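Batch job 17 of 40 flagged for manual review because the log was empty.
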Amino acid sequence: MPSSATELASPDAIARYETVIGLEVHVQLSTATKIFCGCPTSFGEPPNTNVCPVCLGLPGALPVLSRHAVELAIKGALALNCRIRPVSRFARKNYFYPDLPKGYQISQYDEPFSEGGYVDIEVAGERKRIGVTRVHMEDDAGKSVHEGFKDSARASYVDLNRSGTPLIEIVSEPDMRSSDEAYAYLAEVKQALQFIEVSICDMEKGHLRCDANVSVRLRGAEKLGTKAEIKNLNSFRFLKEALDYEVARQVAVLDSGGTVQQETRLYDPDLGQTAGMRSKEHAHDYRYFPEPDLVPLRIGEAWLAEVKATIPELPAARRARFASVYGLREYDAGVLTQTRALSDYYETVARVSGDAKTAANWVMGDLAGALKAEGKEIGESPVSAENLGALARLIVAGDLSGKLAKEVFAKMFSTGDAAAAILSREGLKQISDTGALEKVIADVIAASAKQVEQYRGGKLTVMNYLVGQVMKATRGQASVAVVTELLKQKLG
């Protein structure tokens, strides 16, 4: 076997094996209260303040299922193309953790509320469908905080504020064959759930966490290899790094004649390595049995139809529509549908401006750059979608040059005012009067003898230079169309 945990297989050795990956994604639902009690789910409160007898697991406290949590869970499952079971049951998953005061987690086992879905991904230009085995509901455990473990003083604390927070767990089929595919799958899941407002999916706050099951087998083999589960990956970068490391580790073990152990591992981003934590549990280790304090969950057709009616257009469908209806490139459609707020903003700009491509250029270009410089999200933009659309409409109509439009936009971003108000207030109206422009054009021609000679000699691209000189002389206020026409008349 390898002499150390950091001895990894070479790319050539890895190429002889096929990677098999399945993900278990834990998502915190966007409810104001916990799944079985009325305690708030607000983040960042003082430790052990958002608690009550139910989420503390005190004797005699009974859980009451949140209807809102169920509806968000249904929306999430439908967005992942799952079937909703009319009857499902909660179960007790028994295990001991210091931050699990009940001694068990209320989850779903053999009768989840949804199953049989899929997520379509695209990697390196190739589309692939990843199966979703099931989506089930459960409550979260608390949080253990460890301090001083690298020093002589050691201490651990338990914060139970998160205990009882509503989760859905999304279990995929082992259909992914690379870390890139796993990355793409998790990105699609996150975007879909954010789009329909099932979850904020803020990984820094623990709203989205991922466990990865990974194994390797020789290419062409049918039998799956022994898997390791990498727990609690809370960033896309860590997911990819952990999978790449673990694949190289497992191949090195097998190529040296060793045996991969079925175990739970943790990823250390500082070292860039996974390390064994404990042997992997099996279902029977948790001693599942039906939750005696909760009746079966019944989701009737009327309730299901009511929830379905609240689901907006999903990101994949919106990407396709932006490409077909607005004629956008696939890349641009993807950028403009990164969030629901951004795609809604863009559609308003496109509608007001009357030109979808000009709208896309301004939203992805000047607006995105200004927001990034200020550290703001689209919902915080001082330029409303209607105002940006009106600015784009002036450009499309030829009433505003590109240079002047950028100057006006900067003032719009700093003040929040509409383009028309700024143009009127600062006298920045476009110059289209031929009489006012002819003297400027005459001066430019007189000062550009060399370029005029080149143009008359057949080098027509010089026109761009001459137009630019006129625009410079008029501070960008001249109409490009009028200037171009006048120059052509003067130069013959």
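Reviewer: the log was empty due to a logging misconfiguration, but the result itself is present. DSSP finds 16 helices and 16 strands in the chain. Unflagging and moving on to job 18.
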